Amino acid sequence: MTEAASTGAAESRTAATRDPGAGAGDAPEAADAANERVDRWFARRPALALAALLPIGAVTPLFPVEVGVATFALGTLAVGMAHGAVDHLVPLRADPSVSLRRSIAVVSVVYAVLGGAVVAAFFAAPVAAFVGFIALTWLHWGQGDVAALAIAGVDHLPTSAERWLALVVRGGLPMGVPLLAHPEEYRLVAEWIVGLFLVDAGAAAAAVDPLFAPGVRVGVGVGMAAATLASVGLGYRRVRSGRDAGGWRRDVGELAVLWAWFLLAAPVFAVGVYFALWHALRHVGRLVLVDPEAASAASAGDAVGALARFGRDAAPLTLGGFLVVGAVGVSVPAGVAAPGDLLAVSLVAIAAMTLPHVAVVTWLDRRQAVWRPDAGR
């Protein structure tokens, strides 16, 4: 690594976490230690675990879809629901000028208004709401990966445009590639979700027909391949001009694992594992860094202490999330009578919580200058 590249990587990491980094102590060394350990615990090791699971993922298309439903439920129960359950404390911890009362009040209103709007949208126009949920998840999961790369101090995405392209690629892998590789199961899930809000069970299949036309699949596949090649190519050009090659190699390696995972594994199983093992854990790591006590534990190498602190804070609203699932389940017109219905209800409830969650995370992104990587240089 050149001296300029080393300095750029360090500055990128500092810009991305400069406010929450103070939670690891006043010394920059403590903040850097917290960042490095969080990156290793919540991003690098889970990525290696997903790579190790590829042989299992490759055979899941041979299993009944109920296996994927059970996996999704387990992942959601274990960590998926919890990863957004500390949103009410994010403004407090990321901005010292925000009081606890204001933090909780503002986030509560955001969740009530935006979450309610999502549920209303599903009742009013279920197909459009389903498409909106896919697009929102595409955005959010790409957003989460770009933030994780920023925490890791990668040096090959120095502009907002390059980070937005990385977002398109990272979010599109779990949302777009399964449509290309396993359209039948993808369509089944769409029918389950839309069918919750249609009295005529047969109407769901007709309603989602346009979403699974061959042209849509081809367009998504070509778009994803082109975006991936463009992102990798631009990163390589940055490396050739003196940027750190280590972050680029990591980016390429993670992209290869994700492409293989979503091409090979059955969609429900693939998304269930990814949600818990990849996306949710990376966000948990980010929240550890904005909590001064958890960040101090991470700086000292105390993973159990950092997770215990997060778990304590997340427990009440994790339960609240499951109550939202129950509320959606008792309100849908078609009722819940099969494992597929349970998955569909869970996804609608997750959609209702995702939009306000994205609002909170977007605020945190702005606070940490994730999309302005040159800020403060």
Automatic annotation (TrEMBL):
Q: Which residues bind Fe cation per the record? A: 83, 140, 279, 283
Membrane topology summary: Multi-pass membrane protein
Q: Which GO terms describe its cellular component?
A: plasma membrane
Please indicate if the UniProt record lists Iron as a keyword: yes
Low complexity compositional bias, start-end = 13-31
Q: Which InterPro entries match?
A: Blh_diox
Positions of the region Disordered?
1-31
According to the UniProt entry, its GO molecular function terms are:
beta-carotene 15,15'-dioxygenase activity; carotenoid dioxygenase activity; iron ion binding
Recorded catalytic reaction(s): these are:
all-trans-beta-carotene + O2 = 2 all-trans-retinal
Its localization reads: Cell membrane
Q: From what superkingdom does this record's organism come?
A: Archaea
Enzyme class, spelled out: oxidoreductase
* Cofactors demanded by this protein: Fe(2+)
Question: Which keywords describe this protein according to UniProt?
Answer: Cell membrane, Dioxygenase, Iron, Membrane, Metal-binding, Oxidoreductase, Transmembrane, Transmembrane helix
Among its keywords, does the record have Membrane?
Answer: yes
Single GO BP term: carotene catabolic process
As for family, the record states: Belongs to the Brp/Blh beta-carotene diooxygenase family.
Task: Give the NCBIfam families listed for this entry.
Answer: blh_monoox
What is the recorded name of this protein?
Answer: Probable beta-carotene 15,15'-dioxygenase
Q: Which organism is it from?
A: Halorubrum tropicale
